Amino acid sequence: MSAYVGTRTVASADELRSLLEQQQTEKSCFFLRWPHKVSGFCQTLPPDFPSPEGQLFDSQKELRWKQQGKGYSVLLLSANGVHPNFEPINDSRNVQIQWDVHVQDAHPYPKTETRFPQGLDYREKDFNIGQRYFTDPETATVHFVSLTVS
Fold first, then answer.
1. 127, exposed or middle or buried, with CB in 10 Å at 0-12, 13-18, 19+?
2. CA nearest 127: which of 51, 33, 57, 53?
3. Please, which residues bridge with residue 105 across strands?
4. pLDDT averages per 10-residue partition of the chain, 150 residues
5. What's the pLDDT at 53?
6. Backbone angles phi and psi of 84, in degrees to 5
7. CB neighbourhood size of 111 (10 A)
């Protein structure tokens, strides 16, 4: 299968929750962001869902969402082909891009790094975080970097 990048919009938080539940697997992780806090890495949606922004990721895909008015804009970064109900991202000629994908281990910062909220500790979880780079083969430009978990 080939890599796929697509978008869609959902009209409400309930529709977003339904989409996330459909895409969630046993190994999925969430990371939610509000203007004043982050959820950290969690394997279930926190009780204060929805958040204005966030992501769901596993070993094969990442879903990112961002609030747009009363609805949400959703981006899918997938390593395993086309997903129904998502519109592909096309090039300037309106042709679907055949993405090159490269997977790398993530090199996390130490727990004492001051750029991150205090108490955010991904090392407590029982998983390894990596990164997947989505590159346009014509331009060799990395357009997206998604998180992976194994």
1. middle
2. 57
3. 130
4. 89 95 91 89 88 94 95 94 85 83 78 60 64 90 90
5. 96
6. -65, 155
7. 13
Classify the phi-psi angles of 94: left when phi > 0, otherwise alpha if psi is within -120 to 50, otherwise beta: left
DSSP codes of every residue in the chain: ---EEEEEEESSHHHHHHHHHHH--TT-EEEEE-SS-B--SBSS--TT---SEEEEE-SSEEEEEEEETTEEEEEEEESS---TT-EEPB-TTS-B---EEEEEE--PPPTT-TTS-TT--GGGSSS-EEEEEEEETTTTEEEEEEEEE-
> Which residue's entry shows tokens 């090159």?
100
Instruction: Give pLDDT, residue 105.
Output: 80
